Amino acid sequence: MALEFKGDAICLSGLSGTRLKCDIIGKYYRFWWNITSGGKAQDYKFPTGIIDLHAATGEVYIVDTGETVLGSAGHVIELKATDPNTEHLKAILVEENRECYDHLKNVIRRRWLRLHLKNIILILQSFQEAYIYLM
Ligand SMILES: C[S@@+](CC[C@H](N)C(=O)[O-])C[C@H]1O[C@@H](n2cnc3c(N)ncnc32)[C@H](O)[C@@H]1O
Fold first, then answer.
1. Residue range(s) defining the domain that contains residue 104
2. Which of 21, 50, 95, 108 lies in disulfide reach of 55, CB 3.0 to 4.6 Å?
3. What is the mean pLDDT of residues 90-108?
4. Which of 28, 113, 109 is nearest to 72 (CA)?
5. Where are the alpha helices (DSSP H) in the chain?
Protein backbone atom coordinates (compact mmCIF):
# COMPACT_ATOMS: atom_id res chain seq x y z
CA MET A 1 0.00 0.00 0.00
CA ALA A 2 1.32 3.43 -0.95
CA LEU A 3 2.27 5.69 1.94
CA GLU A 4 0.39 8.97 2.27
CA PHE A 5 1.62 12.25 3.68
CA LYS A 6 0.03 15.46 4.88
CA GLY A 7 2.78 18.00 4.50
CA ASP A 8 5.75 16.14 5.96
CA ALA A 9 3.67 14.01 8.35
CA ILE A 10 2.94 10.37 7.55
CA CYS A 11 -0.81 9.65 7.53
CA LEU A 12 -1.89 6.97 10.01
CA SER A 13 -5.24 5.95 11.42
CA GLY A 14 -6.00 6.99 14.96
CA LEU A 15 -8.31 4.07 15.38
CA SER A 16 -5.35 1.74 15.88
CA GLY A 17 -4.20 3.78 18.88
CA THR A 18 -1.58 5.84 17.04
CA ARG A 19 -2.32 9.05 18.97
CA LEU A 20 -2.09 7.30 22.34
CA LYS A 21 1.06 5.45 21.28
CA CYS A 22 2.74 8.70 20.24
CA ASP A 23 1.91 10.33 23.60
CA ILE A 24 3.10 7.33 25.59
CA ILE A 25 6.35 6.94 23.67
CA GLY A 26 7.18 10.63 24.18
CA LYS A 27 6.69 10.33 27.93
CA TYR A 28 8.42 6.95 28.12
CA TYR A 29 11.58 8.08 26.28
CA ARG A 30 11.99 10.91 28.77
CA PHE A 31 11.34 8.66 31.78
CA TRP A 32 13.68 5.92 30.50
CA TRP A 33 16.51 8.33 29.63
CA ASN A 34 16.27 10.02 33.04
CA ILE A 35 17.00 6.69 34.70
CA THR A 36 19.52 5.14 32.30
CA SER A 37 21.62 8.30 31.91
CA GLY A 38 22.26 8.14 35.65
CA GLY A 39 19.95 11.06 36.32
CA LYS A 40 20.84 14.24 38.13
CA ALA A 41 22.85 12.41 40.79
CA GLN A 42 25.26 11.21 38.07
CA ASP A 43 25.06 14.38 36.02
CA TYR A 44 23.31 12.42 33.22
CA LYS A 45 26.74 11.21 32.14
CA PHE A 46 26.11 7.60 31.07
CA PRO A 47 25.93 7.11 27.29
CA THR A 48 22.50 5.95 26.13
CA GLY A 49 20.84 5.43 22.78
CA ILE A 50 17.45 5.11 21.14
CA ILE A 51 17.31 3.24 17.83
CA ASP A 52 14.14 3.63 15.76
CA LEU A 53 14.13 1.15 12.87
CA HIS A 54 10.97 2.53 11.26
CA ALA A 55 11.54 6.16 12.01
CA ALA A 56 9.08 7.43 9.37
CA THR A 57 9.03 11.25 9.18
CA GLY A 58 9.08 12.39 12.82
CA GLU A 59 5.51 13.68 12.44
CA VAL A 60 2.28 11.70 12.26
CA TYR A 61 -0.97 13.00 10.78
CA ILE A 62 -3.92 11.34 12.54
CA VAL A 63 -6.41 10.97 9.74
CA ASP A 64 -9.49 10.56 11.98
CA THR A 65 -8.93 13.70 14.02
CA GLY A 66 -7.02 15.82 11.49
CA GLU A 67 -4.16 16.60 13.89
CA THR A 68 -0.42 16.41 13.40
CA VAL A 69 1.58 15.11 16.35
CA LEU A 70 5.18 14.05 16.90
CA GLY A 71 5.93 10.45 15.98
CA SER A 72 8.52 8.26 17.67
CA ALA A 73 11.50 9.79 15.84
CA GLY A 74 10.16 13.28 16.50
CA HIS A 75 9.92 12.53 20.21
CA VAL A 76 13.56 11.42 20.42
CA ILE A 77 14.73 14.65 18.82
CA GLU A 78 12.31 16.73 20.89
CA LEU A 79 13.76 15.15 24.02
CA LYS A 80 17.25 16.15 22.91
CA ALA A 81 16.06 19.61 21.92
CA THR A 82 14.27 20.40 25.16
CA ASP A 83 16.62 18.86 27.73
CA PRO A 84 20.13 20.34 27.82
CA ASN A 85 21.47 17.26 29.61
CA THR A 86 20.87 14.85 26.71
CA GLU A 87 24.21 15.41 24.98
CA HIS A 88 25.21 11.78 25.56
CA LEU A 89 21.91 10.39 24.29
CA LYS A 90 22.37 9.01 20.76
CA ALA A 91 19.37 8.95 18.42
CA ILE A 92 19.78 6.51 15.55
CA LEU A 93 16.87 6.88 13.14
CA VAL A 94 16.62 4.29 10.39
CA GLU A 95 14.09 4.43 7.56
CA GLU A 96 13.80 2.29 4.44
CA ASN A 97 11.34 4.42 2.49
CA ARG A 98 13.00 7.22 0.53
CA GLU A 99 9.96 9.53 0.74
CA CYS A 100 9.72 9.13 4.51
CA TYR A 101 13.43 9.76 4.83
CA ASP A 102 13.22 13.00 2.82
CA HIS A 103 10.23 14.20 4.87
CA LEU A 104 12.13 13.38 8.06
CA LYS A 105 14.97 15.62 6.93
CA ASN A 106 12.42 18.40 6.19
CA VAL A 107 10.89 18.02 9.65
CA ILE A 108 14.30 18.26 11.31
CA ARG A 109 15.17 21.35 9.27
CA ARG A 110 11.83 23.00 10.03
CA ARG A 111 11.60 22.22 13.73
CA TRP A 112 15.10 21.83 15.09
CA LEU A 113 17.82 22.94 12.69
CA ARG A 114 18.65 26.15 14.54
CA LEU A 115 19.56 24.03 17.56
CA HIS A 116 23.02 22.50 17.75
CA LEU A 117 22.05 18.95 18.53
CA LYS A 118 24.78 16.33 18.72
CA ASN A 119 24.44 12.59 18.29
CA ILE A 120 21.56 12.32 15.85
CA ILE A 121 22.25 9.83 13.08
CA LEU A 122 19.88 9.31 10.13
CA ILE A 123 20.23 6.17 8.02
CA LEU A 124 18.36 5.32 4.84
CA GLN A 125 18.50 1.53 4.85
CA SER A 126 16.57 -1.25 3.19
CA PHE A 127 15.99 -4.09 5.59
CA GLN A 128 16.37 -6.51 2.67
CA GLU A 129 20.09 -5.85 2.70
CA ALA A 130 22.47 -6.99 5.38
CA TYR A 131 25.21 -4.68 6.55
CA ILE A 132 27.51 -4.38 9.48
CA TYR A 133 27.82 -0.81 10.70
CA LEU A 134 30.99 0.29 12.41
CA MET A 135 30.41 3.67 13.98
C1 LIG B 1 4.07 2.20 11.15
S2 LIG B 1 4.54 3.86 11.05
C3 LIG B 1 5.62 4.06 12.43
C4 LIG B 1 6.15 5.47 12.56
C5 LIG B 1 7.01 5.78 13.74
N6 LIG B 1 7.97 4.74 14.08
C7 LIG B 1 6.15 6.10 14.95
O8 LIG B 1 5.99 5.24 15.81
O9 LIG B 1 5.67 7.22 15.06
C10 LIG B 1 5.49 4.08 9.63
C11 LIG B 1 6.63 3.12 9.28
O12 LIG B 1 6.14 1.91 8.73
C13 LIG B 1 6.58 1.77 7.38
N14 LIG B 1 5.46 1.29 6.58
C15 LIG B 1 5.47 0.22 5.75
N16 LIG B 1 4.27 0.03 5.19
C17 LIG B 1 3.45 1.01 5.64
C18 LIG B 1 2.07 1.38 5.40
N19 LIG B 1 1.28 0.70 4.59
N20 LIG B 1 1.57 2.47 6.04
C21 LIG B 1 2.36 3.20 6.86
N22 LIG B 1 3.65 2.89 7.13
C23 LIG B 1 4.20 1.82 6.54
C24 LIG B 1 7.09 3.13 6.93
O25 LIG B 1 8.18 3.03 6.01
C26 LIG B 1 7.56 3.72 8.24
O27 LIG B 1 8.87 3.32 8.51
1. 5-124
2. 95
3. 96
4. 28
5. 18-36, 72-82, 98-112
